């Protein structure tokens, strides 16, 4: 991780300091200057620490609706609806950006040089890609493609009142299709590419989609359920090579042909209004079957506008790496925001993100290395993997490299925590250059801001990634139902474990939940269920009025509120911390309450854990856990301990392996000060990862608790009976 030249520099520097100290001792004037020079940074740091204590990021606000404790963003007295004068829809926002930045790069896709399929001895084939440089569409060319595709849709006889589903991985064509539909005021149904057949069929039939836009991979899924689809008339394939087996029940056209037909037969735009439904976005389904959330143009625009006011200096110089699912509200908001400010969007995938990603051919470059992004979004599971990867490399090198890394990390941590002896100024520059430079290179070396959302980010990971990247991580909190617009950490907030104050588009209110023991009158912090109000709160669930009435309320001031089911507490500066979730709290046999999510979040930092689900049964007095073991960490431990094994599945079943992992979890639980009943009494090690394709985690990599319970019901039963 580090070079020996830094040690040489450090030794030389220490010699010079000794000589300087001798000279100062002989000269009283120089000595006084030395003392003053030493006191100045101390005084400055103390001043900085005091200023942090008094800064109010959120302030109390008088709101309507159910009684509670509410805050607003300290800089905005009323919720922000748009940051651009005269702009009230996403269609208008995109058109304005394209006119302002006509000749500038907007959308980039890497050229595929070669594809190799390898089949190892175990018979499981895997693909390796050699990808070239990014090929770019300017804002002007992108707008032309959007207009042509919108006109082509008309030529295909797709009517405005009919809905379009986009069912594909994140890519350039996804964004173009989205903007084209907006330009014709066509509502888009977003569907995760990893969605299973049952949920896919339900989503398409429920929304009565007539046109599906997808890739070849997704087209194969459609063919499998074609007999169950009631309304689909046409399919537009993003890939040029369309499988012949896909024809039959619908007409199939390539994406390029739709653009070509539209170019030859241009049609005027039919722009939407702010209150028109832009997207029906299906939730990830972590708590059951996904629900279709109806988002207006005004809803999404409010969040886009609010985030723009929070991220400093966001503009045309920024480069954004897009790899999360566009069917997720976090990514959809991010790409609309980057295009609105004149930034650059380069597309990638989670499996080609870095030079060591699983689909990148050895010796070739990952997306981040080629693109060198300045801003990124990420979900906690991705950041956890980056953290574990860095730690693995540091531990593997050992010796001097590890000692220097640990020293650099501790010095930076001291500085962030406000200690006057922490690494600032020249020392920070040197640590960054000699130690953390290689870590930053993993994501291209130029990241200046990173947003984490979609699930809770552990304090350990947040601090680690922030220090190593030398860039702030803004942890955000929001839901599909609030267009991701709820809270957001400001860049100068160095605390961890919190999700910031309310976004300028939202009010955040806590209401009492007596059954769980959370009250707004609690000391030292108000606690309760989190309720979000403001223009980013969506209309409700498509064709599900009962569920809509249950969690959406309109107060006497005509403000919409969404009841999240999450439990939070407000800190003195107005920032929110998520501490629980109503659905994750289980009452054990003797009356103790266990917060499953809280325990899982803490235990997941074990190096042996790739994923974990805690299970609590009301008929028992203890918990158990399913643990997806980290193959590298467990096999590395086994090699060092001389534990023989034939394969990873065999190793995961061994008693000594289970004992080692359980011991690691116990140590973390002790540090976290968990009660005995919160700590899993027994664990089951699993060797196969949980993936979106398996249906056990969402596209944002959150566990699907009910699906896992069903899939491993026998294992859970055995843990309780053995």
Automatic annotation (TrEMBL):
Domain of life: Eukaryota
Regions that span the bilayer: none
Pathway assigned to this chain's UniProt record: Lipid metabolism; fatty acid metabolism
A Pfam family annotated for this UniProt entry: AMP-binding
Gene3D superfamilies: N-terminal domain of ligase-like
Family annotation (SUPFAM superfamilies): Acetyl-CoA synthetase-like (SSF56801)
Alphabetic keyword roster: ATP-binding, Ligase, Nucleotide-binding
Ranges where the AMP-dependent synthetase/ligase domain occurs: 131-542
An annotated Gene Ontology molecular function: ATP binding
Cytoplasm listed as a keyword: no
Cofactor(s) the protein needs: Mg(2+)
Signal sequence range: none
Cellular component aspect of the GO annotation: endoplasmic reticulum; membrane
Family the UniProt entry places it in: Belongs to the ATP-dependent AMP-binding enzyme family.
Identification of the protein by name: Long chain acyl-CoA synthetase 9, chloroplastic-like isoform X1
Native source organism of the sequence: Durio zibethinus
